[in-house]
């Protein structure tokens, strides 16, 4: 078999897998996710709840948001373990393969690794302040750095 035919066969197989994954999210589920993401300032699709996370990555995201001072009333979470369609569908919706997933003001931010990196660099705090999710901290007095 020629290299081109083998490559085409691989492409067809991968396309079939992608199309099968695309069918995981019904129109109704897409609409519900759209509504959740657009109507809430900060949304986390996670395993478990903020009070009882069911995986370390979900726990880490919740801890980061707590450290950042995000009030619970501004945070909407969805337990993907309770709904198999949501668990698979959110991955298609965002085109991101893992859970948790964080959305701020309707925009996909990323998963645990990205949120952690943004937290460490200070970028997450800037975004949360910009979007009105946390107040800006006053500058430290001179000599207290």
Automatic annotation (TrEMBL):
<dbReference type="GO" id="GO:0044571">
    <property type="term" value="P:[2Fe-2S] cluster assembly"/>
</dbReference>
<protein>
    <recommendedName>
        <fullName>Monothiol glutaredoxin-5, mitochondrial</fullName>
    </recommendedName>
</protein>
<dbReference type="GO" id="GO:0046872">
    <property type="term" value="F:metal ion binding"/>
</dbReference>
<dbReference type="Pfam" id="PF00462">
    <property type="entry name" value="Glutaredoxin"/>
</dbReference>
<feature type="domain" description="Glutaredoxin">
    <location>
        <begin position="43"/>
        <end position="109"/>
    </location>
</feature>
<dbReference type="InterPro" id="IPR036249">
    <property type="entry name" value="Thioredoxin-like_sf"/>
</dbReference>
<dbReference type="GO" id="GO:0005759">
    <property type="term" value="C:mitochondrial matrix"/>
</dbReference>
<keyword id="KW-0479">Metal-binding</keyword>
<dbReference type="InterPro" id="IPR033658">
    <property type="entry name" value="GRX_PICOT-like"/>
</dbReference>
<keyword id="KW-0411">Iron-sulfur</keyword>
<keyword id="KW-0001">2Fe-2S</keyword>
<keyword id="KW-0676">Redox-active center</keyword>
<keyword id="KW-0408">Iron</keyword>
<dbReference type="InterPro" id="IPR004480">
    <property type="entry name" value="Monothiol_GRX-rel"/>
</dbReference>
<dbReference type="GO" id="GO:0051537">
    <property type="term" value="F:2 iron, 2 sulfur cluster binding"/>
</dbReference>
<dbReference type="InterPro" id="IPR002109">
    <property type="entry name" value="Glutaredoxin"/>
</dbReference>
<dbReference type="GO" id="GO:0015036">
    <property type="term" value="F:disulfide oxidoreductase activity"/>
</dbReference>
């Amino acid at each position: 078999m020629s290299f081109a035919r083998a490559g085409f066969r691989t492409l067809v197989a991968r396309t079939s897998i992608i199309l099968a994954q695309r069918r995981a999210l019904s129109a109704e589920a897409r609409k519900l996710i759209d509504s959740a993401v657009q109507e809430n300032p900060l949304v986390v699709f996670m395993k478990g709840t903020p009070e009882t996370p069911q995986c370390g990555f979900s726990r880490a995201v919740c801890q980061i948001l707590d450290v950042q001072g995000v009030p619970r009333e501004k945070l909407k979470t969805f337990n993907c373990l309770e709904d198999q369609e949501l668990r698979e569908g959110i991955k298609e919706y965002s085109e991101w393969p893992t859970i948790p997933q964080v959305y701020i003001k309707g925009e996909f931010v990323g998963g645990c690794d990205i949120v952690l990196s943004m937290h460490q660099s200070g970028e997450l705090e800037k975004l949360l302040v910009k979007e009105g999710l946390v107040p800006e901290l006053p500058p430290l007095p001179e000599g207290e750095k």
